[in-house]
Amino acid sequence: MSAPSSSGPLSHLTVLDLSRILAGPWTTQILADLGARVIKVESPAGDDTRRWGPPFLTRETDDGQTENADAAYFTCCNRNKESVCVDFSKPEGAELIRTLAQSADILVENFKVGGLKKYGLDYDSLRAINPRLVYCSITGFGQTGPYANRAGYDFLIQGMGGLMSMTGLPETDDQPAQPVKTGVAIVDEFTGMYAATSILAAIASRDQTGEGQHIDCSLLDCQVAMLANQGANWLVGQRTPKPMGNNHPNLVPYRAYPVKDGHVIIACGNDRQFRSLCQVLGLEALAHDERFATNAGRVEHRDRLEPALEVRLTAFTRDEIIARLEQEAVPCGPINTVPEVFDDPQVKAREMVVPLTRADGATIQTVAYPARFSATPARYHAAPPRLGANTQTLLRNDLQLDDQAIETLRKSGVVA
Q1: What is the phi/psi pair of residue 257, to 5°?
Q2: Alpha-carbon dihedral of residues 70, 73, 77, 82, nearest 10 degrees?
Q3: pLDDT at 352
Q4: Separation between Cα atoms, residue 80 and residue 38, nearest integer Å
Q5: Which of 188, 271, 303, 402 is catalytic?
Q6: Residue 352 CB: number of other CB atoms within 10 A?
Q7: What domain of life is recorded for the organism (predicted)?
Q8: Is 188 a catalytic residue?
Q9: Exposure string (b/e) for 18-47, b if CB count within 10 Å is 16 or more?
């Protein structure tokens, strides 16, 4: 096995990141963690998520006071990037970005359809000066179709894409089902992962053809793709998914169950695991009942099976039943709070928290890249940057501008 590389597998690539909020920055942080140089181009106001708090990072002012800096939200998806503050709504600013694009490998943007054309920063304009450029556009609804010009946000797409029709508590005699979104912006995050995967596929294609291409990646398309088994349940069996709380439409038992001191998750994926569960609970007769012997039978007769399991499980504490079930290789686990997640011995052993110190002395706790490479691991070389922290260096080193030219741009508000 070769020695691990310190530069990362994508260290030969340069990314222009014109995106903001979450889906685009999530994409480019993946690329940055894997070694790509990511130049985050921000307006003078900065990425909106710098203000999406509290909580905020704090910093000490020159007079010794403490003030809010960037929101914690911003730090979750902007590690390992350079922040360059350029107002490309001004012709001089747009020209700076075009110059950078001439030698870039990848550009990621999430403006409205056609929004960058007036600045000469659309794909066709930049392809003319750099045909090797892989240009990824992330939008709510894609570049085509009747909704193409609509703005799209994660919450909206969770609803339109079907996810919220199946999350939340089921309908009861007393109350209709209530739509519930997920606790994180999961559509943005999945779109970021699809976009990063697609970008790397386009780079692989470029290695063979020498030509870049345009990638059209939409939140709605990604959400529809994420419907997975629920989408297949409809397409194959015309079964409309509905809110089922913590129940699974295709597996039983597979949900959170009340115990003496809270809840425990039990997730039986096969008949052997169900039989082992019944043995631990002293319900061997259920394992031999023909109604419950197979998963298909348990799904059909869940209303008869679940109450019997619930009664027995309430005799145990959470830790007692987890210990017993783990001995019998029955998948189970607790419902952890976020503090409990980061205190979990497995999470600690996997070193999932990475502290990074910014140039101003602020230490920021970030979450590690989740995949482990044997030879080219993810790298963590820069904390989420302050707005415009790298502007001066880039103007001098990449664009070869002298102090007078930089000062002229600064006074005219093109850079900050």
Answers
A1: -120, 140
A2: -10
A3: 98
A4: 7
A5: 188
A6: 16
A7: Bacteria
A8: yes
A9: bbbbbbbbbbbbbbbbbbbbbbbbbbeebb
Q: Are 231 and 161 in contact (CB under 8 A)?
A: no
Q: Report all structural domains of the chain as residue ranges with CATH numbers, in order of start.
A: 14-226+350-411 (3.40.50.10540), 254-337 (3.30.1540.10)
Q: Count Cβ neighbours within 10 Å for each residue of 106-134 and write b for 16 or more, e otherwise.
A: bbbbbbebeebeebbbbbeebbeebeebb
- Tokens linked to 26: 């999530």
Instruction: Supply the pLDDT for residue 174.
Output: 86
- The DSSP symbol for 249 reads S
In which residue are the tokens 């008949």 written?
271
**Average pLDDT per consecutive 10 residues, the chain (416 residues; last block may be shorter):** 65 98 98 98 96 90 78 97 98 98 98 97 98 98 98 96 94 87 97 98 98 98 97 95 92 97 97 98 96 97 97 97 98 97 98 93 94 95 96 97 97 96
Dihedral class, residue 342 (left if φ above 0, else alpha if ψ from -120 to 50, else beta): alpha
pLDDT value for 3? 45
First vs last C-alpha separation in the chain: 46
Integer Cα distance of 50 and 387 in angstroms: 9
**How many Å apart are CA 245 and CA 36, to the nearest integer?**
41
**CA 5 from centre of chain:** 25
